[in-house]
Automatic annotation (TrEMBL), chain B:
Residues that span the membrane, as ranges: 55-78, 109-137, 157-177, 184-202, 240-258
Protein name per its UniProtKB record: ABC transporter permease
Keywords noted in UniProt: Membrane, Transmembrane, Transmembrane helix
Source taxon at top rank: Bacteria
UniProt keyword rRNA processing present: no
From TrEMBL, chain C:
Keywords, alphabetical: Signal
Protein's recorded name: DUF2092 domain-containing protein
SUPFAM superfamilies tied to this protein: Prokaryotic lipoproteins and lipoprotein localization factors
UniProt signal peptide: 1-23
Annotated spans, Disordered: 58-84, 277-299
Amino acid sequence: MSGPPQGSGPPQGSGPPQGSGPDGGAAVIETRGLTKRFGRQTAVDGLDLSVPAGAVFGFLGPNGSGKTTTIRMLLGLANATSGTASVLGQDMPGRLDAVLPRVGALVEGPAFYPFLSGTANLRRLDAADPHSPRATRRQRVADALERVGLQYAGSKKVKAYSLGMKQRLGLANALLRPRELLVLDEPTNGLDPQGTREVRNLVRSLAAGGATVFVSSHLLAEVEQICTHAAVMRTGRLVAQGTLAGLRAAGQPLVVVRTPDAGAARRVLDSLGLVPGPPTHGADMADGATVTAKLPAAARDGAPRPEAIVAALVADGVRVRGFSMESGSLEDRFVELTGEGFDVAR
Amino acid sequence: MASELSVMFRRRRTWAMLAALAAIPVLIAVAVRVTGAGQSGHGPAFLDRITQNGLFVVLTALVLCTPLFLPLTVGVVAGDTVAGEAGLGTLRYLLVAPAGRARLLLVKYVGAAVFCLAATASVLLAGTVAGLALFPAGPVPLLSGELVDGWTAEGRILLVGAFVCVSLLGLAAVGLFISTLTDVPVGAMAATIALAIAAQLLDALPQLDWLHPWLFSHWWLGFADLLRQPVEWTSFGNNAALQLGYVLVFGALAYGRFATKDVLS
Amino acid sequence: MPAAAMPAVIAAAVLAGPLQASARIDLPARTPEQVLALLAGNKVQQLSGTLEETASLGLPQLPDLGPGSTGSSGRATPGGPAAAAANPLTAGNISQLLGFLTTPHTVRVYLDGPANQRVQVLDTLAERDVIRHGPTVWTYDSGANTATELTLPNPRRPKTGAPGALAPGSFEWAPGAVPTPAALAAEVVKGMDPSTQLSLGSNTTVAGHSAYVLQLVPRTGASLIGKVSIAVDSGTGLPLRVTVTARGQDSAALEVGFSKLELTAPPASTFLFTPPPGTSVTRKSQPAVPTKPGGFTPGTVITRPGAIATPLAAPAPGAPANDHPAVTHHATPKVATSGTGWATIVEAPAGTVPATLSGSPALAQLLQPVAGGHALSTTLFSVLITPDGAVFAGAVPLAALQQAAAAK
């Protein structure tokens, strides 16, 4: 089904050196040069994804960056134009029948028969797999509904459900059987803050149970709170992947100096090879200004230690009232990587 | 399979269509009862016989339903098979369950075939009940002029029902194939129904007589051959062979299309 | 891509199914004359079979003309069979005749000796039957819900005399325009003259019976008929299929043949008929007719189209069969012929076609105004109706008819 792997593909998503891969365990999802074209449009371009076992993997990217297309290829819904994918150690879509029963999925929002009740919908989808045990179906459906807090709405027709309830029902569908891998595409879409929190807890408990969770999202906060690993997509290409800590560290650390002597501080920082921004003044002018400076990527290895910076500032007579080193937020990193921020790509 | 049928028969639309089909013989029976026997030779075949024997209600209804109403409902169900799931988005969940594409297609087709049976049965049942409730029963004259008793006649009518049901299987396969081409169920339904009508139009054009034996609608009204004495089985056999051919060809086309299709709905 | 190839493979298999390789059929070698003698010696008295009749005469094809249209005869003759008998040339009758000439038909035939015959014309959702049992002949039309009972004066014996004058296996009481292969073959052979070139085609199989193929080709160029092929059952001499090809054409203009044939007696009940309740029944008895009127058997209409004038003056197929001897009897004496053999032209004098007929829409659709009247031109025969109601017809080009008419 899949074409030959790309021998000399375009330069792959430049993962930061320290976030280079799974930290132990076999990869649960592994793709090599995975590419999908629709006509002349390339939706996914040479993707090399590696999701380690047991990870809660955040799959980040603006809308339209190819996340859902990737998920469709991983689940055998769409055929790759070229490249290969393996899920749970087996070829996809070649070994689809063996792989998919072990995977729970929520793809591009929930979808149900509006004229059936929530319970009937889950039974129908469970029965769609010829190997799912019929004897335990009733119980498993009830358990899944309870797990997502829908135990009282199971007999209602789905057309009476709110978006959030449908989203929960979609999660329940993914949880009908014990799964080794959960692929959740935008799982908190349409949920209120309470629901979002519940989903987070759910994901954590699933991960605690040993499952690998692959969560796609365009919301950073979500990924930041629950994920151990993340990958960032931009216009069909993977631009970074690794542990969350690694990704954060890969961002440019920021030096923050609070001082009344803004000019002098900037001069000193500049001379140390940092790139200071314009001073910002707090509400209390007497307290002085805040000067931030980025550490350029080129100078990262030979950069001065924080204590050396403070010493240099003090030595130059800058009245240092506050000093901190901040590793960049993931959001900064995200914006930095995707360029377009949260705009829809292309 | 059970789940497929339960989904179909838990749909209000399915029941509405079956009820509409059942209403046709009832309407015919009531209309004839109220207005009296039609003039001989006018209106659809068998209409003028109803006042003599209630079982002709079923046959009149089948004459009306076979070219139009039955294909209409079968077109809706068959066109909906895959496109309907795609339209709802449930197709992707069925496939990741995983239902298996070939198996899903097979189950969908069997579902459509069961609907063909239910639709025919609905006309047959409603017609028999309405006919016997409003008109006398008793021996039934066959097309050849022979009289047969009521039970034999009912047996013949069941055969006719089987013929009509088989007649619809080819259309259902065509609908299944069209349904794999699109994510818009209404489009697939409309295309299937349009094809059913187009096939009958082509069948009426004598200039295309070389094409006629290949049209899935060609034998649709051949069920009358089962009402002759002795029974003429040729059209039943020809029809069954033709429909089987359509099922195989369009089933294979549907599989060829669906097995490699990107499900993006 | 196996998935993509599969439909193609299945389609090929399905389409290849009906196409069977035609194997050579080995039969003892015979001369055309021997086959002709075999045909003449046909003594089949018992059979059940299904006939397929197709015609492509180059007539404008009018789908709603066929007898399959609901109740055509009942609608067309509001006065019922009696009215039809009084005025055989009704639009309904004409359209039934034309129906037989333009649309294919399936006819089941049953035969058990000369006294038991049944013909069933299988129309869509309807059926027309002629059942002869001894001296009683029933006709039944399920679409019109009418039946006619005719009592013959004395049981008929199989005809003797000229070979094929009434070949066993033909149906003399069949509805007018149901040409059985036997009837057609009889007409063709009867009309055969020295100008006919006789040969044998390659052997064939018709309805599971191996057959010789007798080919008759008119030597004259004056006829529209190019070739007549008769498939003759190698065992019994029964004509199984007659194919008439127009001059210069490859495909058959007219073909009548068995699609199913069993040479066994049908159940006796086949020939017992009682009209079902609710049928409007007409009863008649036929006066003794000294001879069967010549020149009008169903086959004549097409194979000896010279006789087209007579069917026009006689009741058309839908009308009760019993009427036609009387009417033809009345009409035939005036008919004259000119020309010979395949190019014979038949002339019926002025007044044969009533003026009212010009109002027949069915006929109007087929007749073209030409010099000297109105004409019907087909690939096999032509008919010219002059303004005074005279009819000229023959298996000849229209121009020959116009010449004959002008010569009057």
